[in-house]
Write a structure and sequence with these properties.
The chain is α/β, with parallel strands linked by helices and 445 residues long. It is 40% helix and 16% strand. The strands form four sheets. It has a seven-stranded mixed β-sheet with strand order 9-12-13-8-7-14-15, with helices on both faces. The longest helix has 17 residues. It binds nicotinamide-adenine-dinucleotide.
C-alpha cells in the first residue's frame, strides 16, 4: 500500500501529459480501430470478470461492506454488443477519452463506460474513485493484466490526480459523480472544447397511488432504496409522494416488509451496506438532526457512528424547506410527502430540479400517461424501481441538474463515437441548373 501511495502521489500534470502523449500516439497508430482489437479487449474484460469474480466482490465488500449477492446482481454482470455502421453514416472513434468514476458501484460504473469507449475504438484512461480504494487498486491491477495497456490505462488517485488529468485535451470525458464536481469537470473540458457526458444525481421520487398491489410496491421500493447500497445509489428512491389517506397503509406495509427482509434489528443485518465513510455518515446524521426533521421519524432512526451504520429510516411530512427535502439524500433515510390528490405530486416533483429517475406506482392508465407527459426525468419506471438500468436498449443518463448525455448498450458505443456523414457521388448526371449563369429559364425550374 505504501508503494502504491507513493506512486499515486507522483502522478502530476507532467505525468498526465506524458500519459496523454503515449496514448495519443498509440491511438494514432489506428490499432484501437480494428474490429479484432476491440473485440479482443472486450472479450478479455469478460474473461477478467469471470475469472476474478471473487476478488471483485471482495474488494467491493471491503469498500462498502456491500452484501456479495447484491454486488453480483448489480455490478458483476456486464454485456455489450457492437453495432454496424451504415454506408452513409460512419461511426468513428473520438480519440483518447477519459472516464472519471465514482465509489458507490465502483466496479460497474468504471468498467461500463470503459467498455463503451473500447467498443467504439478509443484509447481510454480510467480514473476510479479513491473513496473505494480496494476496488480502485483491483481495477488498476486487473486491467493492467487483462487489456492492452498501450491504449487502456488506469490512473488511481483523488483531486490532485484528477485535476492533472483534466488539464489535458481529451476527446471526450465521461464523469460520474456529484453535480458539484460535474461543474468542475465541465469547466475544465470547456477550455479544450471537449464534449462531456455528466452522469450526476438528484432527488428521484417514487409516487405511490392507491390502485396498486401494496406488497409488490413495498418490496420494490425497498429494493430501490435499502437494497441499493443502503440508499447510496444515484437512482435510489430519494423520497415518496402519496396521498394523506394512503400514507398510513404504505408505512405499515414498509414496516412489515423491512422487518421481514432485515430482521427486528436492522443494525445487525448482513444484508445492508454501511455508509461509505465518516463524512457521508455525518452528512446523513445532520439531515436527521435538523430541528424540524428529528421528530418526524416514524420508523428506524438508529445509527452507529463507529460502524458507520444507519438503519432504514422513514420520515413523514418533513417540511419542504428542510435540507433533507432540498438536497439529494444518498443514504437510508426516506421521507414520505403527502398530498391531497395524487395529481398534486406533479407539482412537488416539478418544484425541484429534474431528477435522474422518477418512479410511479399505479394501475391507472390515464394517470400513467399524464405522468409521462408532465414529468421530465432522466428515466421513468412504472411499478418498479432502478431496473431500467438493466435494459440495454434504453439510454441511461440525466437531464438538467441530473446530468447530460447517456450511455448503456448501443448508446455507449454512440457516446464515444462521432457520426461522420459521408456522401458518395458519381460523375454521372451532372445537371447544369445548379451552375451560373442563372438564366430566367433555369429559375423557372
Ligand atoms: P464525487 O463527485 O465527489 O467524486 C466522483 C469522482 O470525482 C471521483 O473520481 C473523485 O476523485 C473526483 N473528484 C472529486 N472531487 C474532485 C475535484 N475537486 N476535482 C476533480 N475531480 C474530483 O462523487 P460523490 O459525491 O462521492 O458521488 C455521489 C454523487 O454521484 C451523487 O450525486 C450520485 O447521485 C452521483 N452518482 C451518479 C451516478 C450516475 O450514473 N448518474 C452514479 C453514481 C453516483
Amino acid at each position: 500500500m505504501a508503494a502504491e501511495e507513493k506512486q499515486m502521489q507522483k502522478f502530476d500534470v507532467e505525468k498526465a501529459a506524458s500519459l496523454m502523449k503515449e496514448l495519443r500516439n498509440n491511438y494514432n497508430s489506428r490499432k484501437t480501430k480494428s474490429y479484432e482489437w476491440r473485440m479482443s479487449q472486450i472479450q478479455s474484460i469478460a474473461n477478467m470478470i469471470e475469472e476474478k469474480e471473487e476478488e471483485i466482490i471482495e474488494a467491493i465488500h471491503k469498500d462498502l461492506s456491500k452484501p456479495p449477492f447484491e454486488t453480483f446482481i448489480s455490478e458483476a454482470k456486464t454485456s455489450l454488443t457492437t453495432y454496424p455502421s451504415s454506408a452513409e453514416i460512419i461511426s468513428e472513434p473520438l480519440g483518447v477519452v477519459l472516464v472519471i468514476s465514482t465509489w458507490n458501484y465502483p466496479f460497474l460504473l468504471s468498467l461500463d463506460p470503459v467498455i463503451g469507449a473500447i467498443a467504439a475504438g478509443n484509447a481510454v484512461v480510467l480514473k476510479p474513485s479513491e473513496i473505494a480504494p480496494a476496488t480502485s487498486s483491483l481495477l488498476a491491477k486487473l486491467l493492467e493484466d487483462y487489456v492492452d495497456n498501450s491504449a487502456v490505462r488506469v490512473v488511481e488517485g483523488a483531486v490532485a490526480e484528477t485535476s492533472a488529468l483534466l488539464e489535458q485535451k481529451w476527446d471526450k470525458i465521461l464523469y460520474t459523480g456529484s453535480p458539484r464536481v460535474g461543474r468542475i469537470v465541465m469547466a475544465a473540458a470547456a477550455k479544450h472544447l471537449t464534449p462531456v457526458i455528466l452522469e450526476l444525481g438528484g432527488k428521484s421520487p417514487a409516487v405511490v397511488d392507491s390502485t396498486i398491489n401494496l406488497q409488490v410496491t413495498t418490496r420494490r421500493i425497498i429494493a430501490g432504496k435499502w437494497m441499493a447500497n443502503n440508499g447510496q445509489a444515484c437512482i435510489g428512491v430519494d423520497y415518496i409522494i402519496t396521498t394523506k389517506d394512503f400514507a398510513p397503509k404504505l408505512i405499515d406495509s414498509l414496516r412489515n416488509e423491512l422487518k421481514e427482509f432485515f430482521g427486528k434489528n436492522p443494525m445487525e443485518s448482513k444484508d445492508l451496506s454501511r455508509i461509505v465513510n465518516p463524512f457521508h455518515f455525518a452528512r446523513l446524521a445532520s439531515l436527521l438532526d435538523e430541528d424540524k426533521v428529528s421528530d418526524k421519524i416514524v420508523y428506524g432512526g438508529q445509527r452507529d457512528e463507529k460502524q458507520l451504520k444507519i438503519a432504514p429510516t422513514i420520515l413523514l411530512d418533513v417540511p419542504d424547506d428542510s435540507t433533507i427535502m432540498k438536497e439529494e439524500i444518498f443514504g437510508p433515510l426516506l421521507p414520505i410527502v403527502t398530498v391531497e390528490k395524487i395529481e398534486d405530486s406533479f407539482d412537488v416533483i416539478k418544484s425541484k430540479p429534474k431528477p435522474l429517475a422518477a418512479y410511479f406506482f399505479s394501475d391507472d392508465e390515464q394517470m400513467k400517461k399524464e405522468f409521462v407527459q408532465n414529468i421530465s426525468a432522466g428515466g421513468i419506471v412504472f411499478n418498479d424501481t432502478i431496473v431500467h438500468t438493466t435494459v440495454s436498449s434504453l439510454p441511461f443518463g440525466g437531464v438538467g441538474e441530473s446530468g447530460m448525455g447517456s450511455y448503456h448498450g448501443k448508446f455507449s458505443f454512440d457516446a464515444f463515437s462521432h457520426k461522420k456523414a459521408v456522401l458518395y457521388r458519381s460523375f454521372n448526371g451532372d445537371s447544369t441548373t445548379r451552375y451560373p449563369p442563372y438564366t430566367a429559364e433555369k429559375q423557372k425550374l
